[in-house]
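FAQ

Q: What does a record look like?
A: Structure on top, sequence underneath. For example:
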């Protein structure tokens, strides 16, 4: 009966169901499809499961009033479900209440999970979810009478998601039983998600022209619920802007469109009388005839977040995030970060500190801005910071670098010679009384409007990185509740006719949050004991569901990987232990207010404390959060836990390697250690004679207890104790190893890190490489250094061993034995006849059977050099030498000290080996260009998972700053590489489950361009290489478990095609007038040597061949004879072949005479054609791919010339400054000449240095001190580097040249000075600069009268105040002042 009713009901709803999903045209695909056949299959499965379960449990199937509520009521999102039930029949204790929630999801098909239920008096706190049949089952623990109603709530944190297709009102697919029709009251929930993956919900945006233009939009969605008049779709477009309008119509769209600029809402009101059926719609040309602009920050990675919602009657949709295309804005980068940074002057240096900023405290603010448009001088930028507080200020100095940028990698406290902000004294820094060092003038802050305002003091071209740093002394205070990662209350705007920026949020705002308090305690605090762990902390910002607290607990062991814990009655945490990185994560399932004291206890879940104990600051904590993350910080309040063995002391009866020493070892045991466990002292730098299984006694517990053990001594390895008795907890013990163990102390200086101990506990674990608390003093007798001269694995090599004695005397006849493990002798030449015998040694002998070199001392010295050259004939091991390998040992047979037993030479430089030369090639072998690379290698040993190739590329730039993909042969051996920070190296690791057999050739290739070829190219090494450098640019190292090739000294790669550059290149034409046949002169120099048969080609697509033939004779050309040309698809190409060898850097000239018949085009030659003029070079020592010509030699010009003279007073000595922008690049070595035509100038000093400001209007401005010369009124300034075209150049006439204005003034009728330059890109020949300075005297009136004497009266009216001095006939000088505009006679 129930099955028949079920089938009848399924057939009844079939038509309705098909109409709802594409009108019956949808095929059966995917778990989201509500198709009748699929539905019946699943409901029959539910029914059968119900019958099966009914044999053991009683399901309620009586009548009831049931409603279901959802929060949030959003499709495809986790929701809180609230079931309200009022039964018509009593539900007894032990009964099960089952809800069918078809198409709801949680954990994947065929999974079963327990869910938490909010506490209530009738059911268990746990419900069961069966995903296979979409069933949620509650168990009643008390009887629910018919007069009562009950609400059952399952939180959204349990992860049950509403179907992506939404729900219809009173959806028949939600039932509370299966035996009959048991409907529930269900609200309608709409959806814009399609059941098909190729029908995305998205908004596609494009600019109509540039970033300042309006945008076009295309909206795509699937309305699961039909739309009808007057349903509304609202698309929220944060920070978009445009004039508000209402009910605009767009052709072919059944919507009236409105825009509300104040709420950023685009409203689509459905206007058709016909329902808008459930299907995929694409609203194209949505913004036709409408002007809406994208946010000033653009859109990138769904920021700002665009949402869509609807009030549809048949299923409302709450705000739902929607995918958007990335779109450039006027602002490319807008970031702000904070730092607790400041500097204090200690009388000698600035002591600076940097730390994590704290809520409620002041901080340094750093703004980083990049614009996609040009900004103009005096333009104002405003930044609104709504929650930041500071006092009103009008003159805040701005810096361009944050204190946190200085001394990278150093501790949080460091010292600097100068204050990073530019203030000179502590008082200036504190009072902000110093000048800005930025492209901004001083900033102002209004706390009433919360606005920080800057003014630009220069024009800023687009894409310039602008930094503005506000010092901590300005007092900008972070909110007490911190700053969230989603904190978009920092907004940028600017009003300018040329570059208007509407209110825009910063794309990145550094979150600020920290722990007020954090502590960690254990019970009991004993090593490797099961303990309860108590974590207590408070955070100054709120904790939200999903926030994860992390603790790095190295050495801890958890017996479970997942668990639930609580902090009080209100808050639960989901725990996860990751053994691979030894990190504990606790995820909050509830909201916790800021500053609340949280206490989480890990009780009886099997936490074992480390054998090495626990020390403060060794445990780090952090919190990940979408809102308020906390950075990694050490935990200060940690209850100490002692190590399994502590208070370890090691002392000796001697202090050097002569003879044998006794050893005393004292220690405390903090846990029970049973018999057959053993302790090992790692004494790798000690020597002696082996001793095996010798019985010793340990004296423990105040010497009242004796523990027996056996001990073994392996020289140059370890001294081992195997306990024959157990040792109790808290026992203090000591053991004495007397001289019968024949242990010799280290011969060379040893590091305490080499003297450690291991504890091996059966069934517990190991405590390895633990340091001693105290080690007695050891005096070295020798120091040693080992250096390679010319070394290659498997070949006869030369190297040097230098021994220096310390309190150790060697006499004539003493012998040194060097054991060279893996080395071998080549040839029959006797070692006694080699270069070894002489200054240091009277004889030398090589014992081939033991690979020992025996040297006899010939005199007493402080230093002995064992210099093994090629004539000795000793070859290095074919497999090379690994890092920290022990292949060379030394032993002494002396008259004074007897035998000094064998010691390994420490710190041997590693040496690797490859079976064939390593080859590297580049996909784009062009200097200063991005390129991928391919590496071909054959290695001498097997490479396993985790082994890595380390490729050093000196001078190369990085395109990829993080991990990048590679392909490899054999396939899959390598899958990624990554740059090594703070180095020029790349590491490529053998991927999981792969090995490369020894000697097997393999290759790897970067998928995308990841490096930038150095600007000067990559040439082959021309001399023996020692270090990775531009002369030896490419080296390969191997980090492997079975033998490494270290980067010191590196294996230098020499098998590649060298990449060179043109040091200089230019073309000139004579004549250069349009339409004329011309002589072409190509001048160039190379970064490498030119060799015979090298080939040079020159592409000049704009030239006209005219009467030219395929080959032609060259004019006065150096190193080239005949030339050829061809008309290719890309244009006119000349080719030349060299005939001689020419050193690098030497200038070469190729002249194509006029008789060859090539003509200037009718439109003439412009300097911009240099980008079309391409040079290629193929040579033995360097290759250059299509490189644009550096110069086309044409006439240049100085633009925007300004002549500043101070003071502009006739007769005065003046300062002269000239500023200009060259239309051409001015190359290093060229000059700028100032001919001071109307000035009076003379040289006052023999040396002339001229101050030149380059780009003083930009943050990258530089002050250069250039060399000058002066002759015949002309100042010539020689440039030491390239000045880019259109850069601002400001030049001051130096004090070494005294310049005055004539009393007669300067007339603008003729040039005041002439500017000239010999720049290669375009010389300037006497460009006039004019100036007008009026004469000193405003009026000159001379009256003459003739009597017996001639009286001359001179009337003067002064233009400025002037001091006069009068010395009549050499008498006493008198002084007077003539006032401005006064007249005197």
């Amino acid at each position: 009966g129930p099955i028949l009713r079920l089938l009848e009901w399924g057939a009844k709803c079939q038509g309705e169901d098909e109409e709802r999903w594409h009108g019956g045209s949808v095929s059966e695909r995917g778990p989201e499809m509500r198709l009748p056949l699929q539905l019946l299959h699943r409901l029959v499965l539910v029914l059968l499961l119900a019958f099966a379960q009914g044999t053991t449990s009683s399901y309620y199937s009586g009548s009831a009033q049931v409603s279901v509520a959802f929060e949030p009521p959003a499709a495809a999102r986790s929701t809180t479900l609230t079931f309200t039930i009022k039964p018509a029949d009593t539900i007894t204790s032990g009964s099960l209440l089952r809800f069918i929630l078809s198409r709801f999801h949680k954990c994947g098909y065929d999974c079963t999970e327990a869910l938490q239920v909010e506490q209530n008096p009738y059911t268990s706190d746990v419900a069961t979810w069966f995903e296979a049949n979409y069933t949620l089952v509650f168990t009643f623990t008390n009887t629910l009478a018919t007069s009562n109603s009950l609400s059952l709530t399952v939180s959204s944190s349990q992860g049950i998601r509403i179907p992506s297709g939404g729900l219809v009102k009173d959806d028949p697919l939600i039932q509370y039983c299966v035996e009959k029709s048991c409907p529930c009251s269900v609200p309608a929930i709409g959806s814009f998600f399609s059941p098909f993956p190729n029908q995305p919900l998205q908004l596609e945006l494009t600019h109509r022209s540039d970033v300042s233009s309006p945008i076009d939009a295309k909206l795509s969605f699937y309305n699961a619920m039909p739309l009808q008049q007057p349903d509304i779709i609202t698309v929220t477009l944060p920070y978009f802007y445009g004039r508000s309008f209402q009910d605009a119509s767009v052709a072919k769209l059944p919507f009236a469109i409105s825009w509300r600029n104040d709420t950023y809402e685009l409203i689509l009101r459905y206007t058709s009388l016909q329902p808008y059926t459930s299907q995929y719609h694409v609203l194209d040309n949505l913004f036709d005839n409408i002007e809406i602009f994208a946010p000033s920050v653009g859109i990138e990675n769904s920021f700002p977040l665009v949402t869509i919602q609807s009030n549809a009657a048949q299923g409302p949709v709450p705000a739902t995030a929607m995918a958007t295309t990335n779109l450039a804005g006027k602002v490319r980068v807008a970031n702000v970060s904070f730092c607790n940074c400041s500097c204090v002057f200690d009388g000698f240096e600035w002591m600076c500190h940097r730390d994590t900023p704290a809520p409620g405290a002041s901080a340094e603010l750093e703004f980083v801005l990049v614009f996609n448009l040009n900004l103009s001088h005096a333009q104002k930028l405003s930044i609104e910071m709504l929650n930041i507080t500071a006092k009103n200020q009008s003159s805040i100095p701005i810096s361009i670098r944050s204190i946190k940028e200085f001394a990278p990698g150093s501790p949080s406290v460091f010292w600097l010679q100068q204050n990073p902000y530019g203030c000179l004294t502590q008082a200036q820094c504190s009072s902000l009384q110093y000048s800005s060092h930025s492209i901004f003038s001083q900033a102002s802050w209004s706390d009433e409007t919360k606005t920080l305002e800057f003014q630009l003091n220069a024009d800023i071209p687009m894409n310039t990185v602008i930094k503005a740093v506000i010092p901590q002394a300005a007092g900008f205070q972070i909110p007490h509740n911190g700053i969230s990662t989603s904190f978009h209350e920092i907004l940028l705007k600017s009003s300018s006719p040329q570059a208007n920026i509407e209110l825009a949020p910063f794309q990145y705002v550094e979150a600020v949050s920290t722990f007020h308090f954090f502590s960690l305690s254990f019970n009991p605090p004993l090593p490797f004991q099961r303990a309860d762990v108590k974590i207590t902390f408070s955070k100054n910002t709120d904790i939200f569901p999903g926030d994860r607290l992390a603790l790095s607990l190295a050495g801890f062991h958890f017996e479970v990987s997942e668990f639930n814990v609580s902090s009080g009655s209100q808050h639960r945490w989901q725990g996860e232990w990751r053994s691979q990185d030894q990190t504990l994560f606790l995820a909050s399932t509830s909201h916790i207010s800021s500053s609340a004291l949280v206490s989480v206890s890990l009780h009886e879940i099997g936490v074992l404390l480390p054998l090495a104990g626990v020390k403060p600051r060794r445990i780090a904590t952090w919190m990940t959060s979408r809102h308020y993350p906390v950075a990694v910080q050490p935990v200060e309040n940690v209850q100490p836990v002692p190590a399994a063995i502590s208070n370890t002391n090691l002392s000796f009866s001697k202090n050097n390697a002569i003879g044998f020493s006794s050893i005393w070892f004292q220690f405390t045991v903090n846990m029970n250690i049973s018999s057959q466990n053993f302790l090992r002292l790692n004494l790798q730098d000690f020597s002696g004679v082996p001793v095996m299984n010798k019985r010793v006694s340990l004296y423990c517990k105040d010497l009242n207890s004796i523990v027996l053990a056996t001990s073994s001594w392996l020289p140059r390895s370890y001294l081992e104790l195997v306990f024959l008795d157990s040792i109790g907890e808290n026992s203090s013990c000591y053991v004495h190893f007397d001289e019968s163990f024949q242990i010799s102390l280290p011969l060379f200086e040893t590091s305490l890190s080499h003297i450690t101990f291991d504890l091996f506990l059966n069934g517990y674990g190991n405590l390895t490489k633990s340091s001693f608390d105290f080690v007695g003093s050891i005096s070295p007798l020798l120091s040693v250094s080992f250096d390679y001269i010319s070394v290659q694995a498997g070949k006869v090599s030369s190297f040097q061993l230098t021994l220096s004695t310390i309190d150790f005397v060697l006499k004539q006849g003493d012998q040194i034995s060097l054991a060279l493990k893996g080395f071998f002798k080549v040839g029959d030449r006797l070692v006694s006849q080699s270069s070894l015998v002489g200054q240091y040694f009277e004889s030398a002998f090589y014992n081939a059977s033991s690979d020992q070199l025996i040297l006899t001392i010939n005199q007493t010295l402080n230093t002995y050099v064992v210099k093994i050259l090629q004539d000795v004939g000793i070859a290095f091991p074919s497999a090379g030498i690994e890092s920290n390998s022990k292949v060379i040992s030394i032993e002494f047979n002396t008259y004074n000290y007897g035998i000094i037993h064998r010691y390994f030479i420490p710190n041997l430089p590693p040496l690797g080996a490859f079976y064939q030369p390593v080859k590297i090639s580049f996909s784009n072998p062009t200097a200063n260009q991005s390129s991928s690379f391919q590496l071909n290698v054959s290695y001498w040993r097997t490479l396993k998972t985790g082994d890595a190739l380390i490729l050093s590329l000196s001078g190369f730039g990085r395109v990829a700053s993080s991990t990048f993909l590679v392909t490899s042969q054999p396939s899959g051996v390598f899958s990624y590489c990554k740059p090594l920070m703070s180095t020029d190296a790349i590491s490529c690791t053998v991927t999981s489950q792969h090995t490369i057999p020894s000697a097997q050739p393999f290759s790897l290739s970067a998928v995308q361009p990841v490096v930038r070829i150095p600007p000067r190219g990559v040439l082959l090494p021309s001399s023996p290489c020692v270090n990775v450098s531009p002369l030896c640019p490419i080296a390969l190292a191997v980090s492997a478990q079975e033998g490494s090739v270290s980067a010191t000294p590196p294996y230098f790669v020499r098998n590649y095609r060298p990449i060179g550059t043109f040091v200089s290149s230019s073309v000139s034409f004579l004549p250069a007038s349009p339409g004329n046949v011309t002589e072409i002169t190509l001048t160039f120099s190379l970064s490498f040597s030119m060799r015979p048969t090298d080939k040079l080609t020159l592409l000049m697509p704009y030239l006209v061949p005219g009467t030219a033939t395929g080959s032609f004779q060259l004019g006065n050309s150096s190193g080239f004879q005949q030339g050829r040309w061809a008309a290719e698809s890309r244009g006119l190409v000349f080719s030349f072949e060299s005939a001689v060898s020419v050193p690098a850097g030497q200038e070469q000239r190729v002249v194509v005479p006029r008789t060859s018949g090539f003509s200037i085009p009718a439109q003439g030659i412009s300097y911009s054609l240099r980008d079309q003029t391409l040079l290629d070079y193929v040579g033995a020592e360097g290759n250059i791919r299509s490189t644009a010509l550096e110069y086309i030699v044409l006439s240049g010009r100085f633009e925007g010339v300004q002549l500043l003279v101070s003071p502009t007073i006739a007769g005065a000595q003046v300062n002269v400054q000239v500023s200009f922008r060259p239309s051409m690049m001015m190359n290093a070595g060229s000059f700028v000449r100032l001919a001071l035509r109307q000035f009076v100038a003379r040289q006052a000093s023999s040396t002339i240095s001229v101050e030149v400001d380059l780009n003083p209007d930009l943050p990258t401005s530089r002050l250069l001190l250039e060399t000058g010369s002066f002759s015949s009124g002309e100042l010539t300034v020689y440039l030491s580097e390239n000045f880019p075209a259109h850069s601002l150049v400001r030049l001051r006439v130096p004090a070494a040249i005294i310049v005055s204005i004539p009393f007669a003034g300067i007339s603008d009728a003729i040039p005041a000075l002439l500017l000239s330059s010999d720049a290669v890109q375009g010389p300037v020949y006497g460009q006039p600069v004019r100036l007008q300075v009026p004469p000193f005297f405003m009026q000159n009136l001379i009256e003459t009268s003739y009597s017996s004497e001639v009286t001359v009266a001179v009337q003067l009216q002064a233009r400025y105040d002037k001091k006069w001095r009068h010395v009549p006939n050499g008498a006493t000088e008198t002084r007077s002042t003539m006032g401005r505009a006064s007249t005197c006679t």
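Q: Is there anything notable about this one?
A: Confidence is low (pLDDT under 50) at residues 1-56.
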